[in-house]
Amino acid sequence: MPFGVKDLYDLAGLPTSRGSRLFRDAPSAVADAVDVARLRAAGAVPVGKTAVPEFGSVCFTASPAWGVTRNPWNPEVTPGGSSGGSAAAVAGGMVPMATGGDGGGSIRIPAAWTGLVGLKPSFGRIPYPDNLASQTDTKGVLVRTVADAARHLDVTCGPDDRDRTSLPHPGVRYEPLLDTLDVSGLRVGWSPDLGYAVVEPEVEAIAEEAAHDLVKAAGLPWHPVSVMLTDPVRVWLGSGSLDLYQELERGMWPDRAGELHAVNRYNLTQADLLTPAQVARVWMRRRGLEAEVAQLHAEVDVVLTPTTAVAPFPAEGPIPEVIAGQSVFPAMAVPFTMVANLCWNPAVSVPAGLTAAGLPVGLQIQARRHADGHGPTSVTNVGGHRGGHGPTGATNVGDGASRGRGPAARTGVSRAGRAARSPARRPRCTAGGAARSSGPARAARSSAPATRTCAGWRTAR
Q1: I need a surface site. Which of 43, 74, 350, 378 has the fewest CB within 10 A?
Q2: Number of folded domains in the chain?
Q3: Catalytic pick from 17, 82, 86, 446?
Q4: What is the pTM of this model?
């Protein structure tokens, strides 16, 4: 299986540019990242690096090094970030799988906006020896089906002595759980806002309908939950205050500040002003948030929310600062995903439906920490193997007829599988094995390629 590698992580023989002019001409990596090495050992073939915003710092993919990456569903809008190149490559039919990293939503946001499945496992489930000070970044994947996400996790999970936070092997294989996990009695809660978010009404309605579909298919009770979390966005922004320093080499800041994206110049300038007492207060607030989320998952096993508060916005930005008529800080465009990063929970985004403009929207499923089986497997068991869809139609219904939407709906094929029941406006799809694509990759319509074969603020990696 060919796959793309997010350009924040190493692929032997190619440079890791991090989307920055500072590293665009860096020497080639001499070894693969842990997850890449495990995929390669299992027979997968890396074909190139996928574009990222500089250091993965924003939720749309446009960088000083490589330009703007666009969404195959509509090239005028973003595929999200920071794993936007990976999402565009998979949704456009270039590759059936691409790696991602998620420190605040950077797998799940692009998955939501490109009609894919995006899995962020529990922190430490996939080793990442080079993690940053905030300890929020988790390796994961963008694929078309939940089965492929589970298979990826089976290959990449397990400890590595170079990462002291890596978890022991779970002792199960996730792909077989898709057909064997008993979800009866699973306590599933729905929250449209987690007590602090403002969501565009159309996005909320699509996500809530998808949540109803999942719960109804499993015969479980509908259980709205009253959640009042203590400002996770503020906690998340503060938790990453030291991360960017670890990305830079000695002499780069502030000496080469002019080569950095304006967002990262601002981040570093503000971080220079922080005192130890301020950093300590951030970590105390994070501790309080962890207690709140633990209490939430004592009441429900799985929490359903919209993946994002908005639909995809223009590819060049800016991030919306008005949502549902209310002025908000830009990070509030993607307010749901960072909770799982701060508290180390597994979470996945699955397709929820399309807006009136034909743009994808995602449903987020978050489970208790270390209960990774209740992320991907509860999606497929509760939802009838809900999978991704894309403009190439590379995931099809069980009869083999292409049901993808978008500019190349007839170019994709996949293994036959069990079809998901979907309401009107939702493409039906299977969760068979590894999706295969054929025909021209429409992601090539981007002004900057999603994949290259040679070489807000802190929205994760």
Answers
A1: 43
A2: 1
A3: 82
A4: 0.86
State residue 389's pLDDT score: 59
Q: What is the rounded CA–CA span in Å between residue 446 and residue 435?
A: 22
3-state secondary structure of 392: coil
Is there a domain that residue 21 lies in?
Answer: yes
Q: What confidence score (pLDDT) does residue 222 get?
A: 87
Residue with tokens 């790696």: 99
Which DSSP state fits 258?
G
Catalytic annotation present for 82: yes
The tens digit of pLDDT for each residue in 323-379 reads 999 999 999 999 999 999 999 999 999 999 999 999 999 999 999 999 998 766 666
**Burial class of residue 24, CB neighbours in 10 A (0-12, 13-18, 19+):** middle
Closest to 293 measured CA to CA, from 347, 357, 240, 243:
347
* Residue 144, phi then psi, degrees to nearest 5: -95, -20
Which one from 17, 83, 86, 106 is the annotated catalytic residue?
Answer: 106
- Asked if residue 459 is part of any domain, the answer here is no
The radius of gyration of the chain's CA atoms, rounded to the nearest angstrom, is 20
Is the peptide bond prior to 221 cis by the omega test (within 30 degrees of 0)?
no
129 prior amide bond cis, ω within 30: no
* Band of pLDDT at residue 388, cut at 50, 70 and 90: low
Active site residue 446: no
pLDDT on residue 440 = 25
Known active-site residue 216: no
CATH number at residue 389: 3.90.1300.10
**In terms of residue numbers, what domain contains 407?**
2-452
Measured from the Cβ of residue 40, the count of other Cβ atoms closer than 10 Å reads: 16
